[in-house]
Amino acid sequence: MKKVIVCAEASAVHLKKVIVDFLSKEGYDFVDATSRDDLSYIEAGSIIGESISKGEYQFGIVMCGSGMGVNLVANRYSGVYCGLCESLHTARMARTITNCNVLALGGNIVAYDLACRMVKAFLDTEFGETFPEEVVPALKKMFDEMDAVDKKTHG
């Protein structure tokens, strides 16, 4: 089972609580790393970014008011590929096309039911899924190129 870490800054704690309940009911292996309800987007993005970068978790879900702040911070960490998503389609495509390992959500943007469906789609979709077999090697090549840029920029 995939290990997931979840964290939210102050304006998205309400959404995080719904997602944590959903993950629990669905039987996902997760940790809620929101240590207090007044985290800044820099703190929440850093908690997720550092944990994913160190390989402690396979996937992360991070939230702030718009999702943008935590997205920017999490993506500063090596090996973190955080996608800011606002639809079921983008959550699924973040996994299948770009192999994102972190989902960023806006607590003031995404409705609860949609957020839960996005989380499920993100966590249950595999890289390359839904693409014809002959396309998957090209997707993997692009991910390898992106990974090379990550290694170049992060040392």
Overview features:
155 residues, alpha/beta, Ribose 5-phosphate Isomerase B, Chain: A, five-stranded parallel β-sheet, 15% strand
**CATH fold descriptor:** Ribose 5-phosphate Isomerase B, Chain: A
Query: CATH homologous superfamily?
Result: Sugar-phosphate isomerase, RpiB/LacA/LacB
Which residues sit in consecutive blocks of at least 5 with pLDDT less than 50?
none
Task: Give the domain tally.
Answer: 1
Lateral strand order in the biggest sheet: 2-1-3-5-4
Radius of gyration: 15 Å
Q: What's the architecture in CATH terms?
A: 3-Layer(aba) Sandwich
Average predicted confidence as pLDDT: 93
The topology string of helices and strands comes to EHEHEHEHEHH
Please, could you describe this protein's structure?
With 155 residues, the protein is an alpha/beta fold. The chain has one domain: Sugar-phosphate isomerase, RpiB/LacA/LacB (Ribose 5-phosphate Isomerase B, Chain: A, 3-Layer(aba) Sandwich), CATH 3.40.1400.10. It has six helices and five strands, in the order βαβαβαβαβαα. It is globular. The chain starts with a strand and ends with a helix. The mean pLDDT is 93.
